[in-house]
Design a protein that fits this description.
The protein is an alpha/beta fold and 446 residues long. It has 23 helices and 13 strands. A 7-stranded parallel sheet has the order 3-2-1-4-5-6-7, with helices on both faces. Strands 10-9-8-11-12-13 form a 6-stranded parallel sheet, sandwiched between helices. The longest helix has 22 residues. It is globular and about 65 Å long.
Length: 446
């Protein structure tokens, strides 16, 4: 979930979920405790606000944690007017925010130019005119003690002269190269060739970035093992995703519903594939046994193929972007996440369970879930088995379904608990910086 969202964006996907996943936060944006004198440069490929898509959610809660621990200078790419409108929201509580607007045509042109080279398309797309100048000015204004790079797309900036001598902690989240390799296996030419190339070039970069970083963070043990095979010399730590428990807690008893909900950004290939599998192969079998059942596909930017899945006769609704996903979760009976090529922890599963729903998932999703969440999920591989699992849950009483979800100890998975190791890692990294500072000023002067 958060999955390899930064890489997905680089290849043209528009994110994971809806225009505003949910509007409540566990605490006001400006909440903070006493912070140290540590200066952190936080590099993100999307503005970490609002927390309405998988790649923003983890970055958002990282930013809240950093604000309570250090002075943060945020340098973030922004991609559209909606994102730009939120920049002012982050310019509070002493945080310096530097937002740099991307240009899609610029990114596409540089992606084409990159094809004969070893440069990942991810790096070409996650770039912007003036980005290096902005970082140089930000470093000159407040020299950082440590760089926190979010995803491999931003880790490349740590190799620039202005940041080269500053210790880096890399939050890789997922191993993006493995994700592109998985996508190549289920795609046709020319996409399969492009995805294989991206997997190859990113794998080379991931090894270099992991070697440079004081520590590299991933969200699951599976991702750690994958990255260790690529970069055995690196220090790789598992820091899982969390749940905004208070925001997602259902406010009412479980709905007497026969609705199945699937959430995700619907122009992202794995979500498109999952929606198609669910609607075309799984749903007919569900409808034969539960004629009153409905399927709601919730998520922004539905492709033409996903929009075509809507069917009044089959009880299938495709919503497109919605202002708040929680009501769709709270009034559903079951959530489904039948993704074949996903990696990492799927936030959509964590959120559904926290919202009081049992979830039917594919085995590759199940194996990456925290054990407490897995207790609320049923894994099934084939279309027939997925349909059977969904029907078995729809046949239960609402209180029984809610009981399955509440078996999961979501209170143990709050973001503060899951990210608790990060401040110490940043302190450790900062302590490794050479005593002779002044590098930033020298670069600016040159």
């Amino acid at each position: 979930m958060v999955g390899a969202e930064c890489a997905r964006d680089a290849m043209g996907a528009q994110g994971r979920i809806v225009s505003s996943r949910y509007q409540l936060q566990s605490r006001p944006l400006g909440y903070r405790q006493r912070r140290s004198s540590l200066n952190v440069l936080f590099l993100t490929h999307r503005l970490p606000y609002a927390p309405n898509r998988g790649d923003r959610v983890r970055a958002y809660f990282l930013l809240q944690l950093l604000r309570r621990h250090a002075h943060v200078t945020l340098v973030s790419l922004i991609h559209d007017n909606d994102e730009a409108a939120h920049v002012g929201r982050l310019k509070d509580d002493g945080t310096d925010v530097h937002a740099v607007r991307t240009n899609r045509l610029h990114g596409l042109a540089h992606s084409v130019i990159s094809l004969p080279t070893t440069r990942p398309i991810t790096h070409a797309m996650l770039d912007a005119p003036g980005l290096i100048h902005t970082i140089t000015a930000a470093v000159a204004a407040r020299p950082p003690d440590v760089v926190l790079a979010y995803c491999s797309g931003m880790a490349r900036l740590a190799f620039e002269p202005v940041l080269r001598d500053i210790p880096m902690v890399l939050d890789m989240v997922d191993v993006d190269s493995a994700k592109w390799a998985d996508l190549a296996k289920v795609s046709r030419l020319p996409k399969s060739w492009i995805y294989r190339r991206e997997a190859r070039t990113l794998r080379h970069f991931e090894r270099a970035a992991t070697a440079k970083a004081v520590a590299t963070l991933v969200v699951t043990e599976r991702e750690r093992e994958t990255l260790e095979a690529i970069a055995p010399e690196g220090r790789i730590l598992v820091v899982p995703n969390g749940i905004d428990v208070d925001a997602l807690r259902p406010p009412e008893p479980p709905a007497d519903s026969q609705d199945v909900v699937f959430c995700g950004v619907m122009n992202y290939a794995p979500n498109e594939q999952a929606a198609t599998l669910l609607a075309r192969e799984v749903w007919p079998a569900v409808k034969r046994r539960r004629p009153q059942a409905t399927l709601t596909i919730v998520g922004s930017n539905p492709s033409a193929g996903v929009r075509a899945l809507a069917s009044a006769s089959q009880g299938i609704v495709v919503t497109g972007a919605v202002p708040d996903v929680r009501p769709y979760l709270w009034r559903a009976a079951v959530a489904a996440a039948p993704l074949r090529t996903a990696r990492g922890i799927q936030n959509k599963v964590l959120e559904a369970v926290a919202a009081g729903l049992p979830v039917v998932v594919t085995p590759n999703i199940f194996t990456s879930l925290p054990p407490t969440i897995a207790d609320a999920c049923i894994a099934a591989e084939s279309a027939e088995a997925l349909a059977g699992a969904i029907v078995s849950l729809l046949e239960r009483q609402p209180a029984e379904r809610r009981g399955l979800a509440t078996r999961a100890r979501v209170a143990d998975l709050t973001w503060d608990r899951q990210l608790a190791a990060v401040p110490g890692l940043l302190d450790e990294a900062a302590a490794r910086r050479p005593a002779a500072i002044g590098m930033a000023e020298q670069v600016v002067a040159s």
